[in-house]
């Protein structure tokens, strides 16, 4: 008997759907489970998104926290093969925002009751940089009576530097593992002692040991990356017991060495969709961590960040860097060149967040509940 193709397809879809439904009922997830979920088609993905939204509402609530992102300098001593501000890219103008500009940006965020700021820049390990950051952290702390949330995203540093900045008043650190697969990590970084998977891991361990709320993340849709790598990334973050995550789509930059593999990449919309799926799955497996909806999503789709809020993310980092520096902080192609710090822009963002089902957590620091629970005693 010939099997009607339509019938056959329906059976396959129904079988998979029930598989996805069953997996989503589980309390813990194996790599095989995650692979099936990562492979889910559009219909099945709706189930995953629904589950992630429910988990978010139940465990962290429908609140989105704003963190004012200050990209204080694009000077970098590293040479990551994917990044537009890598040391060897001579086509960009290097900048270093002044202390006054950084403090004014922080004031902007804190006077609007955002509660937190993020200091991000290219990586530097010199004394001048270390002392400057220490001073900036202290100045930002003195801006408000209640201790503001300060996240650092300043790359790999020796343990004593992390400690110095922690003692100055920063409580959160974001250092992406980029990919938990060492082989893939090696493919996207130069092969030298300054770019080393084990050192990245050791840095993350030091950050955690010192007492920071520890954040990591990966790029989604890298050349050579497989769904299996992404399943492993999710398990890595769970096993490392992170408190926060910032992950986003890889977006190729033509002035970087990795650009030569552009033909190996998934179409940009697929990378976007896969990132949303990763965010939803991370919410399902790590219920009470903070998950950022990153700018790279917005670079692909103007409302990309709000979409991620609907399916599990609970942090947005509006860019409050002085506008004149925006075009020089091009980690990837098409980074939004708007001026988000205008009050009108923020009003629109707030409206979109409300449409996505969340309130903005004004006046709250929005610390990672996962971290607070772990450190209760
Ligand atoms: N220098 C610091 C912080 C700035 S880079 C650090 O490396 O941690 C912050 C993040 O930007 C990196 O972790 C990387 O994941 C991301 N990034 C860099 N180039 C990118 C690209 N082409 N596409 C998407 N994300 C990119
Ligand atoms: Fe520098 Fe960070 Fe870019 Fe690497 S990813 S080149 S460390 S700014």
Q: Do you know the CATH architecture? A: Alpha-Beta Barrel
Please identify the oligomeric state. Answer: single chain
**CATH superfamily (homologous) name:** Aldolase class I
> What would you call the shape?
globular
Major sheet characteristics: 10 strands, parallel
For the residues shown, what is the average pLDDT?
Answer: 93
Which small-molecule species are bound to the chains here? Answer: S-adenosyl-L-homocysteine, iron/sulfur cluster
List SSEs in N-to-C order: HHHEEHEHEHEHHEEHEEHEHHEHEH
Low-pLDDT regions: 1-11
Instruction: Count the E strands.
Output: 12
Structural class: alpha/beta
Determine the strand fraction and express it as a percent band.
5-15%
Named CATH topology: TIM Barrel
Distance between the termini: 67 Å
Strands of the widest sheet, in order across it, are 2-3-4-5-6-8-10-11-1-12
- What is the rounded Rg? 21 Å
Helix percent band: 40-55%
Please count the helical segments: 14
Domain module count: 1
Secondary-structure topology with pairs:
Blueprint: H1 5-24, H2 31-38, H3 42-59, E1 63-66, E2 68-73, H4 99-111, E3 116-121, H5 127-141, E4 149-153, H6 159-168, E5 172-174, H7 182-187, H8 197-210, E6 213-216, E7 219-220, H9 227-240, E8 244-246, E9 248-249, H10 268-285, E10 290-293, H11 295-300, H12 304-310, E11 315-316, H13 343-355, E12 359-360, H14 369-374
Parallel strand pairs: 1-11, 1-12, 2-3, 3-4, 4-5, 5-6, 6-8, 7-9, 8-10, 10-11
Helix pairs in contact: 1-3, 2-9, 3-10, 4-5, 5-6, 6-8, 9-10
The structure holds S-adenosyl-L-homocysteine and iron/sulfur cluster (SF4).
């Amino acid at each position: 008997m010939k099997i009607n193709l339509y019938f056959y397809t329906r059976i396959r879809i129904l079988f998979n759907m029930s598989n996805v439904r069953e997996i989503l009922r589980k309390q813990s997830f194996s790599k095989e489970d995650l692979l099936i979920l990562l492979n889910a088609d559009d219909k099945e993905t709706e189930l995953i998104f629904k589950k992630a939204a429910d988990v978010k509402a139940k465990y962290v609530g429908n609140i989105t926290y704003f963190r004012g992102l200050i990209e204080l300098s694009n000077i970098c001593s590293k040479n990551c093969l994917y990044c537009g501000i890598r040391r060897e890219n001579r086509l960009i103008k290097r900048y270093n925002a002044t202390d006054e500009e950084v403090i004014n940006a922080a004031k902007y965020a804190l006077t609007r009751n955002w509660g937190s700021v993020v200091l991000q820049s290219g990586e530097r390990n010199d004394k001048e940089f270390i002392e400057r950051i220490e001073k900036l952290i202290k100045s930002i702390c003195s801006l408000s009576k209640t201790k503001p949330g300060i996240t650092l995203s300043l790359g790999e540093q020796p343990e004593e530097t992390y400690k110095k900045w922690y003692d100055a008043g920063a409580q959160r650190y974001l250092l992406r593992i980029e990919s938990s697969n060492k082989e893939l990590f090696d493919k996207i970084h130069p092969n030298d002692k300054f770019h080393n998977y084990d050192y990245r891991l050791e840095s993350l361990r030091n950050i955690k040991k010192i007492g920071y709320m520890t954040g990591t993340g990966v790029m989604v849709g890298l050349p050579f990356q497989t769904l299996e790598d992404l399943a492993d990334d999710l398990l890595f973050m769970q096993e490392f017991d992170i408190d926060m995550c910032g992950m986003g789509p890889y977006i190729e930059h033509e002035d970087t060495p990795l650009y030569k593999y552009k033909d190996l990449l998934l179409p940009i919309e697929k990378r976007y969709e896969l990132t949303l799926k990763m965010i939803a799955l991370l919410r399902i497996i790590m219920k009470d961590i903070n998950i950022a909806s990153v700018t790279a999503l917005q670079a692909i789709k103007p409302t990309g960040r709000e979409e991620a809020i609907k399916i599990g993310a609970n942090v947005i980092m509006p860019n409050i860097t002085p506008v004149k520096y925006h075009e020089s902080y091009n980690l990837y192609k098409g980074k939004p060149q708007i001026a988000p710090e205008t009050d009108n822009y923020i009003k629109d963002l707030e409206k979109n967040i409300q449409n996505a089902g969340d309130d903005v957590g004004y006046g709250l620091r929005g610390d990672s509940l996962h971290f607070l629970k772990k450190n209760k005693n």
